[in-house]
Amino acid sequence: MNISMASIGTSNLGVLPEVMGFPHKKLLIKKFNLARKQLLRQNITFSCNRKTGITRAIAPEATKVTGPTLSSVPLANYVPVYVMLPLDVISIDNVFRDQVKCEKQFKELREAGVDGIMVDVWWGIVEANGPGLYDWSAYRSLFQLVQKIGLKIQAIMSFHQCGGNIGDDVFIPIPKWVLAIGENNPDIFYTNRTGTRNKECLSLAVDNQPLFECRTAIQIYSDYMRSFRENMSDFLETGSIVDIEVGLGPAGELRYPSYTQSQGWKFPGIGEFQCYDKYMRTDFKGAATKAGHSEWDLPDDAGTYNNVPAETGFFGPNGTYLTEKGKFFLTWYSSKLLLHGDQILDEANKAFLGCKVKLSAKVAGIHWWYKDASHAAELTAGFYNLDNRDGYRPIARMLSRHYGTFNFTCLEMRNSEHPAYAKSGPQELVQQVLSVGWKENIDVAGENALARYDGYAYNQILLNARPNGINKNGPPKLKMAGLTYLRLSEKLLQSRNFRTFKTFVKKMHADLDYCPEYDKPAPLGRSKGEISMDELLQATQRTKPFPWDEQTDARIGGILAEYWDRLVNKFFLSN
Question: Which end of the chain is more exposed for a tag (fewer CB within 10 A), N or C?
Fold first, then answer.
């Protein structure tokens, strides 16, 4: 999960401000009219629907698509597109509801050229009735329908709670029997400095603690994935399931739950370190003592969720993060995350060994404070990334051991869409992260962070998908392995939005026809030998990212259409 101006959301482009429900309507209507006048100077005309109040710009460029012709493009330029299903497509009581509605929507996706769907397979639903008691029946019904329609499946092993983060409109807790253990031993959960527990997922500190009916957390995750393979073997054998995304933390992401809305966090707060349970305290004290500094303790000057860096002793100018003690802590904190991901992915590799699937892991796009020297929000989440230190390449190197795909977020975002005081840098962040994945010779995939329906956002995704454009003579120099659009909804399927989305899918496919044979993974091989922590940390040396073109060569809409999108973003999203 990653955030932009989340409290504001995104606009239904072309809709008058009174329809959009913005505050300060008179002021915004005045701004809207000003934007309209500016566009009229660009020879754009308007059409107004009297019943809805919707005004749209009409220009030849608005429907124009650009890029190479079909006959000139090799299949190697094709980027498959998946669509994330609603969080509660399987209800909390383990029922596949609204099957008729889903079948209709899946058919629309298939007709639009979409390659497949992604779905959370909730631990809190499947193993709700007790340790080792799995009920996969509802998910089997869902997969049967998806297979019937001809879509492929990306399945997320969701070992986390749904609820408490941006975009979570339903609540699905982790299993009650796990929460009951936490009542007697709350240190199984991530904990901040004030002692507040986060019950979204288990702390990585208990990965190897036999606290769960004699099982460790790692054994729980392993057993769950092995049961999934056994019960979904027919879908795996037929190639319907092509990707297993392994949940590694809150929102399924490899990170600490440092910025949780339910605990009061608001954008662009720096978040808080989550290592103050008794197991993490003991581990840190042991590591510090071994390093000859038994006097060192966990940070007490890093502020609270909604501080800015300069307000803290840890992240401020000449802050603790630059001292020997601070560097030791941050190396320890981020290394624990690497080991956590490595262990679970090794179990996933064993569980799905020989299956024709890819393994993937999702990493959050924490773009706020990226342009601050401290990178504070990244550091509290466990990404020890600074201007002179790469916090993401060690993750990519770890993933390479398991033939894993690096799945990153916030692909749709541009720097200009965020307030200057947040020092956001989503464009540079995406460029850095995708580059290190390619440098480690692994597949890189991604998602949008927030629901967007406009060409301005789609064009940014298209640029990131092929940073140097389409290659008419063979494989592009750089290309993402896939894109998952967040998410399927009634709003996406509205005629105007869906027309734009279908054009986007076609452009992701490099104007090629849908190719069901494109995404066919080879049988998964056994993970390579363990990579020492020293070797992983060697990857922290910062290198220049690959160059990006200024804009995609597969643009949706013309220059004036994008100009309109930018004006609406400027006048409305900033209010």
Answer: C
CA 127 → CA 157, 173, 207, distances in Å? 12, 11, 18
Burial zone of 180 (CB within 10 Å; 0-12 exposed, 13-18 middle, 19+ buried)? exposed
Give the containing element (helix H, strand E) for 429.
helix 426-439
**What is the average per-residue pLDDT within 134-142?**
98
Model pLDDT, residue 241:
98
Catalytic residues: 253, 447
Q: Provide the mean pLDDT of the chain.
A: 89
DSSP 421: G
pTM of the predicted model, to two decimals? Answer: 0.88
pLDDT in tens, 301-353: 999 999 999 999 999 999 999 999 999 999 999 999 999 999 999 999 999 99
Joined tokens for residue 152: 């492929």
Coil/strand/helix, residue 58: strand
Q: Which residue in this structure is represented by tokens 């941006």? A: 166
CA 221 – CA 227 distance, rounded (Å): 10
295, two tokens: 């006097």
* Residue 65 or residue 507, greater confidence: 507
By the 10 Å C-beta count (0-12 exposed, 13-18 middle, 19+ buried), 240 is classed as buried
Helix, strand, coil % in the chain, rounded to nearest 5: 40, 15, 50
The total of other beta-carbon atoms located within 10 Å of residue 262's CB is: 14
pLDDT reading at 490 higher than 60: yes
User: Backbone phi, then psi, for 72, in 5-degree steps?
Assistant: -100, 0
Q: Report the C-alpha gap between 10 and 452 in whole angstroms.
A: 7
- The closest of 159, 169, 167 to 200, measured between CA atoms, is 159
